Amino acid sequence: MDLRGKTVVITGAAGGIGAALAHRFAAEGATGLVLADLDATAVDALAQSINRGLTRSVTCDVTDPAQVAALVDVAHREFGPVDLFCSNAGITTGTGLDTTDEAWGRAWAVNVHAHVVAARAVLPSMVERGAGYLLQTCSAAGLLTAVGDAPYAVTKHAAVGFAEWLSMTYGDRGIKVSALCPQGVRTPMLDHGLARGHAGAQVTAAAGEVLTPEQVADAVVEGLAAERFLILPHPEVATYHQRKAADPDRWLASMRKLISRVASTA
């Protein structure tokens, strides 16, 4: 995908990867950016920092179908048909079997069902004109796992599964789909987990290079240009994924050793 002249919607845009994508897409020549987040003040400040003529900010709960439909309507009204919809919002819990049913439900709603809500809102117009792109932030946890965070591990796997289903079902109808699966990224989400001593955040920080959101945005632009399904800002994730598929028992044993090593140094 060539981003020049394109209309793009980004959810979870107020900070981290979402904000970096907004800045990079603008630099690549996108002519319409609709930036959505629950944090109205932060997302409006982001829109102003880029270019008010190029951007619109929308306060949006990605789990609410009516709000997401309204978000797509804003894009259509202000800039025209949506060329690229980036479902980027996500949450962590840092919990395991002690996770409350309410927290499980919220993780499912944001990390999985929000992708379904977005697809329902934007796909009909894309399919009608035979062109469109969905970028879904799924995390390396969707291919590997998330230590110490059962809801995140489970929901991110489901997010990858839904992205695969979309690609299989709509790929021959002009719709492109990419699953963005970074490992450690220096975002408020990771920093918050580290500050609270979450095991998953500690393992993520210890497992490899922690990238900046801008580095992830670079990988996204390159991946979109190549129209790859899996966009892996950490190339080593592909190797880990292959090892997991080739020998699950050995991979699980290696993960247990990693958890023990991190725990011993905590």
Q: Which tags fit this structure?
A:
alpha/beta; 266 residues; Rossmann fold; globular; 10 helices; seven-stranded parallel sheet
Describe the protein.
With 266 residues, the protein is of the alpha/beta class. It has a single domain, classed as 3-Layer(aba) Sandwich (Rossmann fold). It has helices spanning 16-28, 40-50, 65-78, 101-129, 150-170, 188-195, 199-207, 213-226, 236-246, 248-265, and strands at 7-10, 32-37, 55-59, 84-87, 132-137, 175-180, 230-231. Helix 4 (101-129) packs parallel to helix 5 and helix 6 crosses helix 7 (199-207). The mean pLDDT is 92. Belongs to the short-chain dehydrogenases/reductases (SDR) family. This is Dehydrogenase. Keywords: Oxidoreductase.
Summarize the helices and strands and which ones pair or pack.
Elements: E1 7-10, H1 16-28, E2 32-37, H2 40-50, E3 55-59, H3 65-78, E4 84-87, H4 101-129, E5 132-137, H5 150-170, E6 175-180, H6 188-195, H7 199-207, H8 213-226, E7 230-231, H9 236-246, H10 248-265
Parallel strand pairs: 1-2, 1-4, 2-3, 4-5, 5-6, 6-7
Helix pairs in contact: 1-8, 3-4, 4-5, 6-7, 7-10, 9-10
InterPro entries: NAD(P)-bd_dom_sf, Sc_DH/Rdtase_CS, SDR_fam
Pfam family, one: adh_short
Keywords: Oxidoreductase
Brief overview, please?
This protein has 266 residues and is of the alpha/beta class.
